[in-house]
Protein: DNA-protecting protein DprA
Amino acid sequence: MSPSSPSTARILLDRFAAWHRLTPPERADVETALAGLHPGAEHDPERAAELLARVWWSFLVEPGDGVAGALIAEAGAVAALLAVLAALPTPDALPDMTPAASIRGTLPGVPTPDATRALARWRPRFGDRGLVGALRSAASLHLRVLLPGDDAWPRRVADLGEHGPVCLWTLGRAELLDRPRVGALVGSRAATPYGLQVTADIAEAWCRQGFTVLSGGAYGVDRQAHRTALAVGGDTVAVLAGGLDRLYPAGNEPLLREIAERGCLVAEQPPGTAPTRWRFLQRNRLIASLAAVVVVTEAGHRSGALNTARHAAQLGRPIGAVPGSVVSGSSAGANRIIRDGIAQLVATGDEALGMLALQPELEPSPVAGLRAELVRLHDALHPRQPAPTAALAARAGLAETTVSAGLGELELLGLAVRTGDGRWRRG
Amino acid sequence: MSPSSPSTARILLDRFAAWHRLTPPERADVETALAGLHPGAEHDPERAAELLARVWWSFLVEPGDGVAGALIAEAGAVAALLAVLAALPTPDALPDMTPAASIRGTLPGVPTPDATRALARWRPRFGDRGLVGALRSAASLHLRVLLPGDDAWPRRVADLGEHGPVCLWTLGRAELLDRPRVGALVGSRAATPYGLQVTADIAEAWCRQGFTVLSGGAYGVDRQAHRTALAVGGDTVAVLAGGLDRLYPAGNEPLLREIAERGCLVAEQPPGTAPTRWRFLQRNRLIASLAAVVVVTEAGHRSGALNTARHAAQLGRPIGAVPGSVVSGSSAGANRIIRDGIAQLVATGDEALGMLALQPELEPSPVAGLRAELVRLHDALHPRQPAPTAALAARAGLAETTVSAGLGELELLGLAVRTGDGRWRRG
Structure:
């Protein structure tokens, strides 16, 4: 039986109903709720099965669960879930069984120890009746679920590989997520007036250029980024660490409601999920993957924004940071990632805008095939800010004579342009 | 006749006396003054000739005169000066001649147009009687002249090539100049309390580690650097843009006197020379060349400290800069050179100390012969601050898998060390 057969959705719903001991009215409620979560699935049985499978998965796993991700990538969300269900005893057998005895199987293609640990990790959430209430709550709140393959699905999260989200719970304009220009502005919750000012400056500059301003909906820098975007009529997205039925932190509830109305709220976890430390860290990875560029506007030594920057570094995202006083702790983290070469120093909104030019090219690189020193020299050239030969030599780590000769070659190839005052920029 | 013949010094002194129309008592004064400028030359006729030649040259040329530098490098200071004297008419013929007619010759090895321009440039200073007074003033102030080859001659100025100083006028402990640990601290004259604080922090940290703190004797950052060094009992050198007979700026006179007593004052230009804009710029090049490392603690967009940083970049010196608020102009220049990759971000005195590790190695490089990606990886490792694999990958621009494998190779070669927490530093 192919997973796309019309009966797959029904089979999965039957299993769901059995595991959650749904009464017929509850089952009808769940079906209605699911239809509301993803109206496109209503008349597409394959999509309906995919929706239920991924929603169910999102209740079962913590964000970033690599075994689930690998299994889903290999078999598809529906078949992967059926394999998991097959690896567990029937729901009726459960109440009297110890957790260890309640697992009887392995998973296709997953090494047995990993499968055993994964099943043990997911098992406690199977049949949780809270899920029924959460689905009803999602329906009443008009949440939507984005699935891979949906038009609005943000393709950038594919960079997370098997640690990517199984689906995204959204409220508002989900179409903001897959734009080329999505910039994350992150930083300390305890932002100083300085941090708030530079955050507002960059958020405003980004909005003027049609960027979606992405942040975490927290106090301080996050809040300032969202508020500024709303104030200037720009687009903003808040990625939350818990379910969208609880707008956390409470003090930001009015702001988050406004984002839901005019921008978009996103969560990886379903309704009913409390924000935990782990989920905040995973939320940071999601912010990094959703963004085309990440800027840390103010961050102390232990700020969570540095965690976002590290995730962004792992994903190859261009990262900027705004420097600040070295004698106050509020900028210590931002200064550190600049010093360590993880982030580029960003002083103005326009510089933050310019960072998108650093994004990995989707087209074949123009420098493919050039010898190493020309590639390094090309790297050192900025698309808009021309630099003198000496600075390019310092940046590229090449002798100035090499740089002068190399610039001539790059100029012939159309990859370097000399400005009137004898400086050079990228061609 | 070899330039080392005992009569060379006398021949040169005869020419000097003729050009400056010295009376016999004046000639005796000049001889006494010269002996006091470099006591080591008293019983060494060759050294005495070298001394007079370079002192005379330092009166004739502006700092950085490349024709003089090339000629001296080629022929030696004495023969070069004799060649210039031979290219001019006799002093007796001068008073009635126009400047153009007062040049009749060329210079050995110098293209004729360059020679003509150079002679025309130097000619106006030949026979200037003010020089006699300046030498008397130098003697009464107990100035000393350092010549290339002297024990205390700072070998780092050789990096200036033909644009290097012909000699150095000093007051105080000239032996501070040729130490391995000479750090320049430079910045705005109009320093803010922030700039003053970070300057003091770094100066103190450097002094604790036996650094000589080098600066320009100006207000603001310079003054703070010198004062802090003196306050903590450290060594400090001020490089002035004019002659050491006039301690400029006047408001720093007490400080500069104290530096002369406990540290060292240095000038490239002889007594009687006023500080001019050009000489300030050339002074910056001298600071950059004298320093093993240069740190800009606070600089606005147009600060002269950026000129020093550019000179340092051309000389391949490690350059640091202290970041600051992006919303005040006082740190705009420092932030810019960090952003442009000219300077490394420095947040603490210890980080500024660590920069010496970036100096070009005098010994054969341990990475010689390694393939490019290992060299890049080794470059990315810091000698004292361990970093995680991801950060190293970002720094080196290599895939993390490549970095992991490469670290293993470098570890086997003793070039990388893994710390307890799984991070890596240079071996």
Chain B touches chain A at residues 194, 197-198, 201, 310, 313-314, 322-327, 331-332, 335-336, 338-342, 344-348, 351, 372, 379-380, 385, 387, 390-391, 393-395, 400 (CB under 8 Å).
